[in-house]
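Please fill in the sequence for the structure shown.

STRUCTURE ENCODING:
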């Protein structure tokens, strides 16, 4: 099935006060291109998070990633 493109503004912090100045860990089940983690991290950083790290339980094989992916 085709995945919807992850637009940069798809994610937002509903209450930026919760993340302001905090270090956040995002957890994803499977990373395909990393677009979802990147978009969510941008939203959190834009809301004032001090830092964002991503953790995935699994990833697609590196050779199957599009050019420029992690």
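FILLED IN BY: designer on duty
SEQUENCE:
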């Amino acid at each position: 099935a085709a995945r919807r493109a992850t637009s940069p503004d798809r994610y937002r912090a509903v209450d930026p006060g919760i993340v302001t100045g905090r270090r956040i860990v995002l957890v994803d089940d499977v990373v395909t291109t990393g677009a979802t983690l990147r978009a969510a991290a941008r939203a959190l950083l834009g809301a004032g998070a001090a830092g964002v790290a991503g953790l995935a339980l699994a990833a697609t094989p590196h050779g199957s990633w599009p050019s420029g992916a992690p």
